[in-house]
């Protein structure tokens, strides 16, 4: 077989593998940043007079985990206006 064909097939396989691992990595990073920000918001909120601004339960953890920083911002806005 021709080495060019092997190269093209290798690039296609590499592209597919990178696409498959990009989504879980993005979810993982969003989750890490979301949870860190969730605890940071609660810590800073306690310092300025809002103790336990966002309760840490499975719903807020899922929102912070899947949506990351925008999810925590939505939780804070929701909590402040409720």
TrEMBL record:
It holds the Pfam family BofA. The keyword Transmembrane helix applies. It comes from Clostridium paraputrificum. This is Pro-sigmaK processing inhibitor BofA. It comes from the Bacteria. Keywords: Membrane, Transmembrane, Transmembrane helix. The chain crosses the membrane at residues 6-21, 28-50, 56-78. The keyword Aminoacyl-tRNA synthetase does not apply.
């Amino acid at each position: 077989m021709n080495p060019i064909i092997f190269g093209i097939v290798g690039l296609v396989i590499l592209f597919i593998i990178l696409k498959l691992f990009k989504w879980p990595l993005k979810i993982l990073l969003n989750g890490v940043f979301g949870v860190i920000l969730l605890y940071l918001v609660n810590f800073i909120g306690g310092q300025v007079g809002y103790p336990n601004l966002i309760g840490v339960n499975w719903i807020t953890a899922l929102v912070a985990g899947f949506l990351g920083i925008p999810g925590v911002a939505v939780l804070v806005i929701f909590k402040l206006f409720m």
